[in-house]
Structure formats: C-alpha cells, structure tokens
Amino acid sequence: MTELQKVQARAEAAEKALNEAKAATLVTSIAAEFGVPAVLLTAADEAGLKAQAEAIKALIGATPATPAATPAGRPAPAATPGTGGTPTTPLDAAAMADRIRSI
To answer: CA–CA separation, 39 vs 100, rounded Å?
Structure first.
C-alpha cells in the first residue's frame, strides 16, 4: 500500500466517523426535542426521524408532570393510603412496535 493510499484510507475513515457522529447527534437532539428514547429512532434522515419521534410520542402519550413538592421538600405521594391511587394503563408493546414498523 502506497503512502497516498494510506492517507486516502485514513481520510475515508475520518469522514465515516464524522458522518456517524453527526447522525448520532441528530438522533439525540430529535429524541430530546420529542421526549422519546433515542434507541427507538432508526430512520436515515431528519424527516424520517421526526416522523418516528412523533409516532412514538403519540403512542407513549404525554410525559407525566413532576409531582408537587410538600412543604418539607419531599415529593407529594402519588396515592392516598386506602384509595388505591390512579389506575395506570399498561403500554401495549406489540402495538407500539407495529406502529414504529409502519413508519
């Protein structure tokens, strides 16, 4: 391998690493913008990533609000003893996966 070929190979490797870093940064920023896990975003371009993030956010629903703090600075309890609290709806993983695949 000549010096020129070595330099070209190093330049190609550096360019590939730069493109991968840019893609990871884009995924992370879109995940943060929409409040969804970055690991679920798999599209190749910005428009596709945003579409996936919107669909995931719609499936997951709104992010729960931070509980109000009590005067002592501790979080307020989620349920009053004896009431059972607010029932939660379980996530349907199969429906989420089907929706993500359809994007």
So the answer is: 12
What residue type is assigned to position 63 of the chain?
T
Confidence (pTM)? 0.53
- Give the residue extent of every domain in the chain: 1-63+92-103
Tokens of 39: 């690991």
- pLDDT (tens digit, 9 = 90+) per residue, 6-64? 999 999 999 999 989 998 999 999 999 999 999 999 998 999 999 999 999 998 875 54
Rounded Cα distance between 54 and 38, Å, is: 12
45/7 Cα distance (integer angstroms): 30
